[in-house]
Amino acid sequence: MKLESMQDVFVNQLKDVLSAEKQLSKALPKMAKAARSESLSSALEEHLSETETQIERLEQVFAQLGKRPQAKHCHGMEGLIKECDEALEAEGEDALVDTAIIAAAQRVEHYEIAAYGCLVEYAELMGLNEAAELLRVSLEEEKSGDQKLTQVNESEISASAMAIGLEGAGVRSGSDEMSDEMSDEMSEDMSDGSSGMDGDMSRDSRDSRESRGSNGSGNGAISRDRGESRGNSSKSGSSSKSGSSSKSGRSGSASTQSSRSRSGSSGNR
Questions:
Q1: How would you label 40-63 residue by residue, b for 16+ Cβ within 10 Å and e otherwise?
Q2: Cα–Cα separations (whole angstroms), residue 62 to 12, 29, 68, 116, 223
Q3: Backbone phi, then psi, for 4, in 5-degree steps?
């Protein structure tokens, strides 16, 4: 393959996508027939109709370029269709088989989304506006087809597929395991919190006892101070009384002597 211009790259990609769409148009009827879910089968049949229209659009783009529509075998789509065939041949519960079919079909959709996305960009770069518009319509159809498959899977199939075999095998769902883990963590947190509270209460109790002991020592000192004060007051009172008595005695003696002296003087006269 020799590439000399951007148009060579564009035409080469057109040939590849044309081959991919033609291969898919042959594979989709088998996929729709093998689907166990009516919704899945309907979605695949709808995409078959879109694929046939997309082939026509590709041929129009070739015509705009003045070239004959020619497909170049797409090995990528060939491999994706082989994976689809494996899903179609699978044996098992309906929901499980449909899940496998959807996974294979969405790989195809994503491959086509990438292919058409490149074609749209190349056409815009080269100023091929009409071609870009045709290819953009096909790109949006591929995106819509992928979303429909997701909706079918989420609304009808995935929940049933997850439930199959879980109880018999003793397998627990992820939500149950998460619930147990959260419960264990909460228990550990509560245990740690309780231990911390006990430690705080013990420390508070010790602090309270120490405080009471300190207050007792202080009260004892105050009592002793009061006792000493009262003792000093008693001594002071005794001293005061003693002094007064002594003064009174001395005063009485002086009075007696004076009386005697006056009596003696009167006799002499």
A1: bbebbebbbebbeebbebbeebbe
A2: 11, 27, 6, 15, 116
A3: -115, -10
Number of H helices, E strands in the chain: 8, 0
**Higher-scoring residue by pLDDT: 94, 168:** 94
DSSP assigned state of 5? S
Distance (Å, rounded) from C-alpha 115 to C-alpha 109?
Answer: 10
pLDDT digits (tens, 9 = 90+) for 45-98: 999 999 999 999 999 999 999 999 999 999 999 999 999 999 999 888 998 999
| CATH code for the structural domain at 6-164 | 1.20.1260.10
pTM above 0.90, yes or no: no
The count of other CB atoms within 10 Å of the CB of residue 255 is: 10
